[in-house]
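[step 3/7] fold_predict: job queued, chain A
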Amino acid sequence: MKNGTNAAVLVSELLGGDGPASKIAEDFIALRCSDCLRRDLDDMRFSTGGYLCARCGSQSPTT
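[step 4/7] structure written:
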């Protein structure tokens, strides 16, 4: 993950195919929430916890 206070995932990490971001990249490509596995195209967002739907993103302490 990116150093500093920003919890963003770098595109190079997503496309690298290894490390903790590979699961997030797979969820992004499949258009599914990393937490609940629901497919939700409205307001999906990246965080250190994964690619999260609005419901899981609001409950996650890592967003």
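[step 5/7] annotate
Residues 44 and 53 are 5 Å apart (CA to CA).
DSSP finds three helices and two strands in the chain.
exit 0
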